[in-house]
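tokens incoming
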């Protein structure tokens, strides 16, 4: 065993070796909180605490995996017996075991947010409410908020103000929707994400013997990123640790960035009240970043009024000043940063994996993807449209879900007419209403359809029911997840339907399904998985968080992700891009001080991910929902003390053209790329995520055309450009101007290029030479 204690500073040592009783570490970014938690678990195990008795709750399953891996290095394979994961995955596991107490069977479905929204849409329709007022997203948000504050539908109905005054006034029926939604989830034997926590609370409140069992099982409870726990999560940890009081929480109030999802900073304050014996450890030294980065981050976060006194310093090298890049457009921002990565890699002998591009919203990734691809730099995108959100994947998963749980209303709606069986929406609605009105499950109705309905569709429904029954028989024979999935993909007709579709998209979808089947095979073949049933596979899939979606054999990639997803991570060189007013800070967060402070904390999180170098960038113009908008530099840049910034804001000059091509085949920024088949063959040895990460967007940027501008190419003043002029463009070559018209503050020209055909260009960007 290595001498891990020697690698700790004094307060870290105190925290790691603290034996029993509550412990809280609230400290700045990069000060070793996660490391302390990891070593503390190893230390406890070294002192004889059984791994089965330690529960550690992390922000992503991947973070849990890394922690487990580190502990394994110190203490050995016993680490595999630790209970680790996100709140959702750990308590889903417990609910599988104990959910019977609440009326759920162990094979309950976990609804994702698409399922939830679809159910809300159905309910709004059934209640004959106006679907323009009652928008599923908004309603789900309110229901989620209620659940995370442990407000049941009964309580909500009595006091609709829980959903906010605005909602109570404009949408008085949310309470009734919440009630129906909860009942429908229950009768579908399904829980949504918030239910996993809500129901755990109910379980522990109403079944003291169960609570008692887990209180004695988990002799030590640890929580990382404690600042982002909500009340529901907080109460679970409090109940679990009530007997032993061995609870250790680590976090940073300055990094609290999930208030919009119900995370509550009060939890940190309450903690001191709830645990009078609390030991508090302060960590002040940042080991991650240069002095420059730590001081810059401190100068920013000082602007927040609501925060704990903290003093974070770094003993690392001074480091470079923070660079600020101004680009003309979002496309140019992408190119400058890709070039910067390309050059820095060469000059400083760095790898792709040393770089991260962080943005406020997923939609911003497009320009960077294109630019990196052109330079052949490998990247991974975390978040965004994940493999499991694709239609063909959801379709097959829905079949699997319905085979395991025939009460699953959302899976039923997806598959009943897929492939097409001539069963229309009205018939489906009728089945659901019949089931609900007669207090039956959907399966009761479907399995005996002639009793409840007449008409043409009944025979088709009968055939469907027979098919599902045949799957249920196989399931009862304890066939493993792969055997089941293969059989269902083939016999349901799903695979065949995709196979005969010979369009590029159809082929890609067919291969995606093949990959899903491969991943089921991996799951079954993995010796670490004791239970390889279909039910367990489905659970694993539904609990993947965005950040868990990419882990493959090739770690050497530039990481692109939202700042929210980057919590806890660190990279040598970080680019925080899109530093513009209304984008970051987001327009939606400018309404009051609390929201603005949360945005500022988000920026603090972004800055503190960087070890050696931080670059901020913004564009003067970008496409926003298909409209070109002019942008202003973010106030956040000016909130960093100027002495830490490189004062010469550099307007980007890139080798590529800076013209904005309105007619290009590339979609505007908010369009998420579709995906196509992997370019590596799928081999049995590849993990699911290996396969996923090799999926390449379909809309590959075209390689730059061959035209090379004449050597003395100098752009002309195009303010008087008119139809009939002849021009040269550095990328598209020679062309004839067809039309010039006003576009916002600038003009656009339609030009017919000899080699490229017709293009529409914005004159303020297009480098054109009048010939
Ligand atoms: P965040 O708030 O971003 O989650 P954190 O407080 O959890 O950060 P860690 O990720 O645990 O910080 O540590 C930051 C970096 O500093 C890691 O690379 C870690 O290995 C290193 N580190 C922490 N403590 C020490 C130490 N005593 N000696 C050397 N390196 C350390
Ligand atoms: Mg951490």
């Amino acid at each position: 065993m290595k001498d891990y204690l020697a690698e700790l500073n004094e307060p870290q040592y105190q925290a790691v070796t603290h034996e029993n009783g509550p412990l809280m570490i609230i400290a700045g970014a990069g000060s070793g909180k996660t490391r302390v938690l990891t070593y503390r678990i190893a230390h406890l195990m070294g002192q004889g605490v059984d791994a089965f008795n330690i529960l550690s709750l992390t922000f992503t399953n991947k973070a849990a995996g890394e922690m487990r891996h580190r502990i394994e290095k110190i203490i050995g394979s016993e680490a595999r017996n630790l209970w680790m994961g996100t709140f959702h995955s750990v308590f889903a596991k417990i609910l599988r075991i104990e959910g019977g107490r609440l009326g759920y069977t162990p094979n309950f479905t976990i609804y994702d947010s698409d399922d939830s929204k679809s159910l809300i849409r159905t309910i709004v329709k059934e209640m004959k409410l106006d679907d323009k007022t009652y928008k599923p997203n908004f309603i789900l948000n309110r229901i989620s908020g209620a659940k995370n504050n442990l407000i049941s539908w009964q309580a909500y109905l009595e006091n609709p103000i829980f959903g906010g005054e605005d909602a109570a006034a404009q949408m008085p029926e949310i309470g009734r929707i919440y009630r129906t939604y909860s009942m429908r989830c229950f009768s579908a034997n399904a829980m949504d994400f918030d239910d996993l926590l809500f129901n755990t609370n109910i379980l522990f409140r109403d079944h003291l013997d169960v609570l008692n069992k887990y209180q004695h099982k988990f002799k030590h409870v640890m929580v990382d990123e404690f600042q982002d726990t909500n009340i529901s999560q907080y109460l679970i940890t409090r109940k679990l640790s009530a007997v032993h009081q061995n609870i250790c929480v680590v976090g940073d109030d300055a990094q609290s960035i999930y208030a919009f999802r119900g995370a509550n900073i009060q939890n940190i304050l309450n903690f001191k009240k709830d645990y009078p014996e609390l030991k508090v450890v302060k960590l002040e030294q940042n080991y991650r970043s240069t002095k420059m980065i730590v001081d810059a981050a401190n100068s920013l976060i000082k602007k927040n009024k609501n925060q704990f006194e903290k003093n974070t310093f770094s003993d690392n090298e001074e480091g470079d000043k923070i660079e600020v890049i101004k680009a003309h457009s979002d496309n140019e921002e992408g190119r400058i940063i890709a070039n910067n990565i390309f050059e820095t890699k060469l000059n400083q002998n760095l790898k792709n994996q040393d770089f991260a591009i962080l943005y406020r919203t997923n939609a911003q990734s497009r320009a960077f993807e294109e630019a990196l691809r052109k330079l052949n730099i490998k990247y991974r995108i975390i978040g965004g449209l994940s493999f499991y959100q694709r239609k063909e994947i959801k379709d097959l998963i829905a079949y699997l879900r319905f085979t395991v749980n025939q009460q699953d209303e959302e899976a039923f709606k997806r598959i009943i007419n897929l492939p097409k069986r001539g069963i229309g929406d009205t018939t489906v609605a009728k089945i659901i209403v019949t089931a609900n009105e007669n207090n039956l499950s959907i399966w009761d109705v479907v399995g005996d359809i002639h009793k409840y309905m007449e008409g043409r569709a009944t025979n088709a429904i009968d055939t469907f029911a027979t098919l599902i029954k045949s799957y249920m028989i196989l399931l009862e024979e304890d066939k493993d997840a792969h055997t089941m999935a293969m059989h269902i993909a083939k016999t349901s007709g799903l695979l065949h339907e995709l196979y005969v579709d010979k369009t590029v998209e159809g082929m890609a979808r067919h291969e995606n399904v093949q990959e899903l089947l491969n991943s089921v095979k991996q799951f079954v073949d993995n010796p670490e998985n004791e239970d390889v049933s279909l039910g367990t596979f489905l659970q694993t899939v539904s609990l993947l968080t965005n950040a868990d979606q990419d882990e493959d054999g090739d770690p050497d990639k530039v990481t692109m992700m939202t700042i929210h997803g980057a919590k806890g991570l660190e990279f040598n060189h970080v680019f925080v891009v899109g530093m513009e007013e209304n984008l970051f800070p987001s327009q939606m967060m400018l309404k009051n001080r609390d929201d603005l402070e949360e945005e500022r904390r988000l920026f603090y999180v972004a800055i503190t991910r960087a070890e050696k170098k931080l670059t901020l960038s913004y564009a003067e113009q970008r496409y926003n929902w298909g409209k070109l908008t002019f942008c202003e530099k973010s106030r956040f840049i000016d909130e960093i003390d100027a002495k830490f910034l490189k004062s010469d804001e550099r307007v980007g000059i890139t080798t590529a053209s800076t013209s904005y091509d309105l007619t290009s085949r590339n979609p505007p920024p908010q369009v998420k790329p579709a995906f196509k088949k992997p370019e590596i063959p799928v081999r049995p040895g590849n993990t699911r995520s290996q396969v996923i990460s090799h999926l390449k967007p379909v809309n590959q940027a075209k390689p730059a055309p061959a035209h090379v501008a004449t050597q003395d190419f100098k752009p002309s003043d195009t303010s008087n450009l008119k139809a009939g002029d002849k021009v040269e463009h550095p990328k598209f070559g020679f062309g004839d101007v067809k039309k010039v018209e006003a576009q916002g503050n600038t003009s656009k020209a339609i030009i017919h290029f000899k080699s490229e055909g017709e293009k529409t260009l914005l004159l303020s960007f297009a480098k054109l030479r009048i010939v």
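note: The pocket of magnesium ion (ligand 2) is lined by residues 33-34, 568 (CB under 6 Å).
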